[in-house]
Input
Amino acid sequence: MRIKILSSAVEDLHTGRLFYESQGAGLGAYFLDSLFSDIDSLKLYAGIHCKVYGYHRLLSRRFPYAVYYTFEDDLAVVWRVLDLRRRPGKLRRDLKGR
Output
């Protein structure tokens, strides 16, 4: 199983890291470690998550974030990693850029 992380998802991860680092020293690194661990789990579990707005949605275990991805053949493509504390309309608009 291969995983491809698009630049839009990398930007989301960077924004989240900056936010959590401002909350406490080292928390931004912990955020990235946790989210990359969740993304890495797609090697085993890609395709089993429910679909939301046309994407599979993996909920993070430690943070209020969701990984939105598509899955075909042997490739999981991570499109966005979004904060679930946003308004649903904003989430929907962010995901329509596909």
About this structure: The chain is about 45% helix and 30% strand. The helical segments are 7-23, 27-40, 42-45, 88-95. The first helix runs from residue 7 to 23. The longest strand covers residues 75-83.
